[in-house]
Amino acid sequence: MAMNDNNEYPLSVLIVEDEVLLAAELEFLVEEVGCVPVGHAMCSEEARELATELKPDLALVDVHLSDGPTGIEVARLIANDCGGVALFMTANVKRLPADFAGAVGVIGKPYS
Amino acid sequence: MDDLSLARKTSAPPTGRHDVQHALEQQTALLHEVDHRVKNNLQLISALLLLQARQAREPAVKHALKSVLDRVNAVATVHRRLFQDDDVQRFDVSAFIRDLVSDAVGGSGRTDIVVRLNLERIDIPAAKATPLALVINELLCNALHHAFPDGHGGHIDITTARDGRDFWIEIADDGVGMRSGGAEPVPCFGLNIVRLLGQQLRARIDTETRGPGHRVTVRLPVNGVH
Fold first, then answer.
1. Which terminus of chain B has a smaller tally of CB atoms within 10 A, N or C?
2. Is the pLDDT of residue B96 over 70?
3. Torsions phi, psi of A42, nearest 5?
4. β-sheet bridge partners, residue A15
5. In this complex, do B36 and A91 lie within 8 Å of one another by their Cβ atoms?
């Protein structure tokens, strides 16, 4: 709660992760720092729909989703078309494309 | 042409450059796959602990789950550090301490506790990384959770250095020190972990309670013996 007390409105966050327990953990961590989780997608199609509809400020994107390594395209779409900022969450930082697919950074798993 | 020379011509040697290259690529891919799974599983374990800690009503249960979560996160940080650097044989203790401090202090929400780091680079064999990481985690968590009760802030100083045959790691705070005779016993399980892993590491662990504060020094033999 502490981090965002002074902001006028909290950041909205979309979670794109196919492991529901990890998504639930992330949701909790996001709330703890004062942001608002607005949605959760498990595959790229769901992620595209939610990103277009919700226009989140930030998307936390796992590279491997339930339909394959499609998180990279999702991040590109969010950065290019949805006006949001994407951050990768992955255990395999070395496999990301050199341009980060438009994402601003990466958080290596395991995170805490 | 004799039989032998014919055999030489027709069967290519099984360990040609191409085969070796291919085998190496397969091994590397397998290693990455295992690394990836270990990381995901560690993340899953930490998610389970966090979610259950969040639901727990009983403060003691909440605290127990959170302290296990801290230990799992310390192990996960070791794994991430080891595989992030290209050298998986050596483990940089000072880099680990930086990661641990930013996670543990950030996670505690205690902005009134200032951690000061004075770290000389120390490399230890990878086999000792996890036990040492758990010892450091225990000592840091002890200081964070017990040295500064009731909203009293203060400092935690963490120092690493090498002197002659020993590495030493010191964690000192200027908090209330170990309470003696209080209703709340000093957390025994954490100190048991420190004592047991200290034995495993052949480390000498000295504890000193000062005017205000508490200081623990871990001396680790560079070559496995004091």
1. N
2. yes
3. -110, -20
4. A40, A60
5. yes
A91 touches chain B (CB under 8 A): yes
Any CB–CB contact under 8 A between B23 and chain A? no
| A22 vs B: CB within 8 A | yes
What is the residue whose two structure tokens read 């191409």?
A: B18
The set of residues, in sequence order, having a beta carbon less than 8 Å from that of A62 and lying 6+ positions away, is: A16, A17, A18, A19, A22, A71, A88, A89, A90
- What is the model's pTM? 0.81
Question: Which of B110, B121, B124 lies closest to B156 in space, CA to CA?
Answer: B110
User: Which residues partner with B115 through β-bridges?
Assistant: B156
For A51-76, the pLDDT digits (tens) are 999 999 999 999 999 999 999 999 99
Check whether domain A12-108 has CATH 3.40.50.2300, yes or no: yes
Nearest CA in chain B to A62: B40
Q: What count of other Cβ atoms lies within 10 Å of the Cβ of residue A84? A: 21
Q: Does A55 touch chain B (CB under 8 A)?
A: no
Structurally, chain B folds into a number of domains equal to 1
CATH number at residue B115: 3.30.565.10
Task: Determine the residue of chain B that is closest to A110 in CA distance.
Answer: B43
